[in-house]
Amino acid sequence: MKRKRELGGLREQSHSNGARNVAFPKEYIKRQKQPPRNATKKKRILITWATGTDRAKEAANSVVSEIFKKNSKGNIKIVDPTTHRIETSNIRYFAKGIDLDKVGLSVVNVEQIDDENQIPLVKLVESRVALKRYSDFLAKRKEMELMKLGVMNRSFRTLETDKKEDNLKQIKVSWQIESDDLRRQKAHEIVSLLKKGSKVTLYLDDKNNINSNNWLEGFEELDRVQEDGTNRLPKSVLQKRADVLETLKETVIEYANEPIIVGSIATKMIMKLTPKDVKPYDNDKRALKELRKKERQEKLQKRIEKKKLKDT
Q1: What is the annotated localization of this protein (predicted)?
Q2: For residue range 37-59, what is the model confidence (pLDDT) as tens digits?
Q3: At what angle do helices 127-148 and 54-70 cross, to 10 degrees?
Q4: Residue 88 pairs with which residues in a beta bridge?
Q5: H or E segment to which residue 19 belongs
């Protein structure tokens, strides 16, 4: 008891003096927990913009944030405005000198390197276009927040559409692909993604180009400038490419809407696929209604026939 009273007095003395009493036993001192040595803090990447309105700067920073989410190092690919060639860069360097009063940033494509790494393809667009896309992004984010709070409900179709927009897949197809590989492995890869509800973009090109590091080069302007090189390729090569294209169409006809095809079999092509909106539950429900309606009609017809027999 005497020992406890002494310790109590030491506590009161320590609190009143506002300083640690050296005579206070160590086992009664509560030490603050220190963070582990290996703990690391995520640094927020900030880019200082010298031009543009506050709204334009917010829009640009939103794109920068999206880039770092897809690639932690900020590595990107850009379309050189002079040579129109796709080159590798980093958003930290690419952002220097951009006049946000005239242009803005936009991620137009994403290249999947492996399961963890992606490289966004970044393009400069008009300032009004960048601001419009940012406004749409904010509206969509606000809508999702209201949904989480239970203030707003959205239909199943709208949710599925959003899911598909965020789930874009790219598949490379060589013009020289073997027929068996195209009908089995490649077809399985494409159909599996469509069944999952993913939008799929097929890139068809010569195997030497499709396997290079800059394989996306040239596809960016494909919808604007289409080369005609049919006279430079043998008929057998053109027929082989036509067969590849036809096989792809046959493969996806059951699982995708009418494909959007851009380019030429003489050079390279893009085939954009959107999965069909199929709802088996709704189809089964409709079929069940039709069956019940038919049964009711048959019962009614039998009653009418019985009544006629009685009357006669």
Answers
A1: Mitochondrion
A2: 544 455 556 688 888 898 989 99
A3: 70
A4: 77
A5: none
Per-residue pLDDT tens for 143-152? 777 777 765 5
Strand ranges (E), the chain: 75-79, 86-90, 103-112, 118-126, 168-174, 199-205, 260-263, 269-273
Other CB atoms within 10 Å distance of the CB of residue 14: 16
For 130, counting Cβ atoms within 10 Å of its Cβ (0-12 exposed, 13-18 middle, 19+ buried), the class is buried
**Domain ranges, ordered by start, for the chain:** 1-36, 54-153, 167-273, 287-312
Distances in whole angstroms, Cα of residue 216 to Cα of each of 39, 204, 232, 245: 39, 11, 23, 19
How far is the C-alpha of 99 from the C-alpha of 204, rounded, in Å? 36
Residue 246: CB atoms within 10 A of its CB come to 10
How far is 273 from 222, CA to CA, in rounded Å?
17
Q: Distance (Å, rounded) from C-alpha 53 to C-alpha 100?
A: 8
Task: Give me 159's structure tokens.
Answer: 């949710």
What tokens appear for 248 in the block?
């792809």
Q: What is the CA radius of gyration of the chain?
A: 32
pTM for this prediction: 0.42
